[in-house]
TrEMBL record:
SUPFAM superfamilies with a match to the protein in the record: Six-hairpin glycosidases
Keywords: Hydrolase
Coiled coil location: none
Gene source species: Flagellimonas spongiicola
Pfam families: Glyco_hydro_15, TREH_N
Gene3D superfamilies, per database record: 1.50.10.10
Residues in the signal sequence: none
Name of the molecule in the record: Glycoside hydrolase family 15 protein
Domain named Trehalase-like N-terminal: residues: 8-133
Residue ranges constituting the GH15-like domain according to the UniProt record: 219-582
Length: 599
């Protein structure tokens, strides 16, 4: 498999990746950032998988059941046909709470003939660090490891358990199931119960999508991205993950491999802004509560990222025994970037707080806490905005005065002033407005470079950076301002490679990147759209959509030459930017239709 041809299933507690042939190659239980139980994705020999195997003459087709997170893989040789419906259960219980157990259901649906298949059931617990053994018991198969740490996994099935473990051929005559559980079941499962779990989960997702607006253009792409973002939210705390995986390389064979199963304040805040625009205010409310719970003492700085259960220490370790995706070592868990200083996070968080207060002001119980956080953010920004930092791209070298960080410091003040206005705090407005103007003037004086006729990556630099394109969407500069227009043109000239964008072209800690950071191309498309080059933007957008995998999913990066997906997957950043672009095009279409009907 040369591309990331995987589907994601999940239930806002954990997630799993299933290949286009129906092989379950990645899953961590009981939650997103737990140790893996299947990790073939990160080591084809040692990682462990749960594969559905059919003869060569079977054609395999995969798609999502429309508007759900249920993945359907169909196997057919023309006469003999069956489907595997993969999902993680999620639905309302009678008490109004969600049922989202750490389980995967592989519901095998009989369609026609006498289809034959076998399975390779090969879990490898605890990142495959020790030996995992399978034991057939009366009601289940239990997989066990106790070398590094004691751990177990249970599998219930309607098929013969010994045949499953030994990989014998199974002739399908009726529906059946495989149920993989982190915990032993109290009540014995059955095919009927699994069918009910499937229907309940289907209804949950259909209801969720029904609460999302429909769009004139790119509606299917928006919905698939929205469902993917929902699957990357962790219900228990409101955290939003950057991606469901660790250590998928930005470039094959290189070392830019990071663990993304954490909550970056920047990524998560951007996701929540988009998700609330789609009408899902509960996700926004839970995320704001996550922030309130995290917000330390009033003078303590916010970290750039946290664990999904609000952990503050995310020690980075290397799993030396795993070969990595396509041999790309190292495989890492944890992420040392949590120690970095990135001044932009305050503006991004302040933007979300303002948006939620503006949208749901009558429905937020925590206004006083949010006002406290607002004041704390302004205090921190006022003390630190002049300092250099690591920037949005987490350069591991020396700190610099990154333009994006400075712009987001301005955003923090701009949104704080708007919040103060909402709460009638007039004395703060006067004080904060002076600081807002000071930051704005500083950016115009030091981030603009006459030589390249653009806003540059950092003060005093000649290098361009795609993140500067966000100046307009955050309201720092108007789309038609000549300075912004010329910045977009300069970035196109310098950073575009066959329609895909570099983040930047100056060498970083690991040399020059050879893949495009997917979100940067979406930012560029949005910028083209905003400066009036709408047809060109649309052509770029449609071409970029064609680089998704077979299910419309995007990873973090795209290879410039081959267009294969690279980096962690699926990437929340990529999908939120896809939604923003698609909504812009759809709104434009709607405005054109309204004008046509008026004329």
């Amino acid at each position: 498999m040369d591309n990331l041809n995987y589907g994601i299933i999940g239930n806002c507690r954990s997630a799993a990746l299933i290949s286009d042939t129906g092989s379950l190659d990645w899953c961590c239980l009981p939650q997103f950032d737990s140790t893996s139980v299947f990790a073939k994705l990160l080591d084809e020999k040692k990682g462990g998988s749960f594969e559905i195997k059919v003869k060569y003459n079977y054609e395999i087709h995969q798609q999502y059941f429309k508007n759900t997170a249920i993945l359907v893989t169909r196997y057919s040789d023309g006469e003999n046909t069956f489907e595997v419906h993969d999902f993680m259960p999620r639905y309302y219980k009678l008490n109004g709470k969600y049922n989202a157990p750490p389980e995967i259901v592989r519901y095998v649906k009989y369609v026609s003939g006498a289809p034959r298949f076998s399975v390779k059931y090969d879990p490898k617990l605890e990142y495959a660090q020790g030996q995992t053994t399978n034991h057939v018991k009366a009601n289940f198969i239990v997989s066990l490891t106790n070398k590094q740490k004691f751990d177990t996994l249970f599998m219930y099935t309607s098929f013969n358990k010994n045949s499953v473990v030994s990989g014998d051929e199974i002739v399908l005559k009726e529906d059946g199931y495989f149920l993989i559980c982190y915990n032993e079941k109290i009540l014995k499962p059955s095919t009927e119960k699994m069918s009910l779990e499937l229907e309940r989960t289907k209804i949950y997702w259909l209801d969720w999508v029904d609460r999302t607006p429909t769009y004139k253009q790119f509606n299917d792409e928006i919905m698939r991205s929205a469902i993917t973002l929902k699957m990357l939210t962790y219900d228990k705390t409101g955290a939003v993950l950057a991606a469901a995986t660790t250590s998928l390389p930005e470039t094959i064979g290189e070392v830019r491999n990071w663990d993304y199963r954490f909550c970056w304040i920047r990524d998560a805040s951007m996701v929540i802004k988009v998700v609330s625009e789609l009408g899902h205010k509960n996700s926004a409310k839970r995320y704001l509560q996550f922030i309130i719970d995290l917000m330390p003492d009033k003078d303590e700085k916010l970290q750039i990222m946290y664990g999904i259960n609000k952990e503050k220490t995310l020690t980075e370790k290397t799993l030396e025994h795993l070969d990595g995706y396509k041999g790309s070592k190292p495989v890492r868990t944890g992420n040392a970037a949590y120690k970095q200083k990135q001044n932009d996070i305050y503006g991004i968080l302040m933007d979300v707080i303002y948006e939620q207060l503006a949208k749901f002001s009558n429905d937020l119980e925590n206004g006083e806490e949010l006002w406290s956080i607002t004041k704390g953010i302004v205090w921190i920004v006022s003390k630190h905005w002049r300092e250099p930092d690591k920037g949005i791209w987490e350069f591991r070298g020396e700190d610099r005065h990154f333009t994006f960080s400075k712009v987001l410091c301005w955003v923090a003040l701009d949104r704080a002033i708007k919040v103060a206005r909402m709460f009638g705090k007039h004395r703060k407005i006067e004080k904060w407005t002076a600081l807002e103007q000071e930051i704005k003037e500083d950016i115009h004086a030091h981030a603009w470079n006459d030589e390249v006729n653009a806003f540059v990556q950092s003060y005093g630099s000649n290098h361009l950076d795609a993140s500067v394109l966000l100046m307009e969407s955050y309201g720092f500069i108007h789309a038609k301002d000549p300075k912004f227009v010329s910045t977009v043109r300069a970035i196109e000239e310098d950073l575009s490679n066959d329609g895909l964008l570099y983040r930047y072209k100056n060498e970083d800690d690991f040399g020059l990147p050879s893949s495009s950071f997917t979100i940067c191309t979406f930012w560029f498309i949005n910028s083209l759209f905003k400066i009036g080059e709408e047809e060109k933007a649309l052509a770029h957008f449609e071409r970029l959509l064609s680089y998704s995998n077979h299910l419309g999913l995007f990873s973090e990066d795209i290879d410039f030459k081959t267009k294969r997906l690279l980096g962690n997957f699926p990437q929340a950043y990529s999908h939120l930017a896809l939604i923003e672009c698609a909504i812009n095009f759809s709104r434009k279409k709607r405005e054109e239709k309204i004008l046509e009907s008026i004329s």
